Amino acid sequence: TPRTYGVVWDDTTDKPLDRAIVRFFKVINSQPVLVATTVTGSDGAFMFLFEAGQYRCSAIRIGYESYTSGDLTFKNKSLPNLNIRLEPAKSEKTSSESPKVFEGIDINSK
After folding, report:
1. Digit-coded pLDDT (tens) for 45-89
2. How far is Cα 42 from Cα 45, in angstroms, rounded to an integer?
């Protein structure tokens, strides 16, 4: 079986969240550059393999508040072991409908 490097959880029910979008940004010259995107499976799991460097992580799912990490440092070919907890949205308009991961950067831009 494949190894799990991270899981997205519902912070209220403690159940894994499927269909959450997880993105990793490499920090280059203090700017985040998107390097990986995946969608969690029914077990809430995601997997990435990293080169050495600093990264930031975001996770979004409809009906939940978005998550953005601080800087994460990985050694060469690191396997993250991240548990991301998303809180249910507090209003009808969720942050995943118009997500902003970092100020001035729209992750929906092409």
Report:
1. 998 877 888 999 999 999 999 999 999 888 776 666 789 999 999
2. 8
Write the burial class of residue 54 (CB in 10 Å: 0-12 exposed, 13-18 middle, 19+ buried).
Answer: middle
83: nearest Cα among 44, 109, 39, 53: 44
Confirm if 86 and 8 have CB atoms less than 8 A apart. Answer: yes
Three-class DSSP category at 60: strand
What are 88's two structure tokens?
A: 């249910």
Taking a C-beta distance cutoff of 8 angstroms, is the pair 106, 23 a contact? Answer: no
**Separation CA 110–CA 106 (nearest Å):** 9
**pLDDT tens figures, 9-49:** 999 999 999 999 999 999 999 999 999 999 999 999 998 87
Please tell me the distance from the alpha carbon of residue 61 to that of residue 92, in angstroms, as a whole number: 13
Q: How many CA atoms lie within 13 A of 32 on its CB side?
A: 22
